[in-house]
Design a protein that fits this description.
The chain is of the alpha/beta class and about 400 residues long. It is built from 15 helices and 15 strands. The protein has two domains: about 130 residues, Alpha-Beta Complex (Aspartate Aminotransferase, domain 1); about 240 residues, Type I PLP-dependent aspartate aminotransferase-like (Major domain) (Aspartate Aminotransferase, domain 2, 3-Layer(aba) Sandwich). Helix 4 runs parallel beside helix 12, helix 5 crosses helix 10 and helix 13 packs parallel to helix 15. The structure holds pyridoxal-5'-phosphate.
């Protein structure tokens, strides 16, 4: 006899399928790149990966991972504070701090872990965390966890709404610490957080600012140093979190970059540090090689910007209305979820892989296909993708 839990789960899974929200993975059989081999599909152009700089199959990055496997073996077999911190972790953290412009950095198994660690470890019951409404799920969960663990207060401000944030900061003047958290680049819109104004407000209200730069590291600023560099504000943000799983090689891992005391305190007290293994040395080494490659090749970032501008402008010329912006995230809003899924399916039929997003990932009525450009795309890749957009757009009566 099936147990009640099994029965409930099976029922819900069937409902997911009926609702059209059941996710089936696409199996890739090649490295992540501008074109990939997708099982059952052959070669497709990818406009959906976070491989913004094309570093996931960069020869130097692969070689560094292989060499690390030989030198340090498969893994740490310990949490960091016992005997699981290797010299390559120290080198990686120095490079992360140098890249984003903070005194120190601390790596985590993922940026999810990093975001989960920060508020709950640094805050207490006299404090408050104030979070942008559209922040990443890992920040939302990190805030919930902080509230549950520390009994700190929490508040959410309307997306990028400085007046609303100021009201929430003013209402929290009696709190010991006010921590404001925002994404640097919001992944569903490609919008950049209004960092100069956020910094001014945080200074005025003596608040600490934390920016999650997962979609900005390697992407924004002439050197790919992130949102702060984009605005000429390197060194001004109190706490930056970011991922090693996107532009920086795309393997896995994340980091917190901040003051030496903040990173040391997290080393002492953050539970994902204390009770979970560090990054495998292979991943630490390939991530380090990615940062070194980026530092030596800022022209990759320039190219990413040029390619993104090209794709956005050509889409507009074809008659689409992509959201305006300056990042390689280029969403085309289609309205109903079914329209986004249909467009995505038809594009895949033309050999172009672009994900459609619907409610509840994005607001009702704002379903979209979200294109993400990589510096590794050639003009031919982009032109072929644009031809597919043109064909499918006409087929669907969108243009
Ligand atoms: C992708 C992403 C994360 C999670 O990064 P992982 O290292 O894969 O856990 C966190 N925050 C933002 C804003 C992201 O886009």
């Amino acid at each position: 006899m099936r147990k009640p839990l099994e029965r409930r789960l099976e029922g819900e899974l069937e409902q997911f399928i009926r609702d059209g929200v059941y996710k089936r993975p696409n199996f890739l059989d090649s490295p992540q790149g501008p074109r990939v081999r997708m099982e059952g599909r052959g070669e497709v152009i990818i406009l959906s990966s976070n491989n913004y700089l094309g570093l996931s199959d960069q020869p130097e990055v692969i070689a560094a991972g292989k060499a690390a496997l030989d030198r340090w073996g498969a893994g740490t077999a310990s949490v960091r504070f016992i005997c699981g911190t290797f010299t390559v972790h120290r080198s990686l953290e120095a490079a992360c701090a140098r890249l984003v412009g903070t005194p120190a950095a601390l790596s985590f198994g993922s940026c999810w872990n990093a975001n989960e660690a920060v508020p709950g470890t640094l805050l207490g019951e006299d404090d408050i965390v104030i979070s942008d409404q559209l922040n990443h799920a890992s920040i939302i969960d990190g805030v919930r966890l902080a509230k549950a663990i520390t009994k700190c207060q929490t508040a959410v401000y309307k997306h990028a709404d400085l007046a609303d944030l100021e009201r929430k900061l003013a209402a929290a003047h009696d709190r010991r610490v006010r921590l404001v958290i925002t994404d640097g680049v919001f992944s569903m819109e490609g919008a950049i957080a209004p960092l100069p104004d956020l910094l001014d407000l945080c200074r005025k209200h003596q608040a600490v600012l934390m920016v999650d730069d997962s979609h900005a590291t390697g992407v924004l600023g002439a050197g790919g140093r992130g949102t702060a560099e984009h605005f000429g504000l390197v060194g001004e943000v109190d706490i930056i979190t970011s991922t090693l799983g996107k532009a920086l090689g795309g393997a896995a891992g994340g980091f917190v970059a901040a003051s030496a005391a903040t990173c040391d305190y997290l080393t002492q007290r953050a539970r994902p540090q204390l009770f979970s293994n560090a990054l495998p040395p292979t991943v630490a080494a390939s991530s380090l090689a990615s940062i070194e490659y980026l530092e030596a090749h800022p022209e990759r970032v320039t190219r990413l910007g040029e390619q993104s501008r090209y794709f956005r402008e050509r889409l507009r010329e074809l008659g689409f209305s992509p959201l305006p912006g300056e990042t390689p995230i280029i969403p085309v809003i289609l309205g109903e979820t079914s329209a986004a899924i249909r467009m995505s399916d038809l594009l895949l039929g033309e050999g172009v892989f672009v994900t459609g997003f619907g409610y509840p990932v994005v607001p009702q009525g704002q379903a979209r296909v979200r294109c993400q450009i990589s510096a590794a795309h050639t003009r031919e890749d982009l032109d072929q993708a644009l031809a597919a957009f043109s064909k499918v757009g006409r087929q669907l009566g969108l243009i």
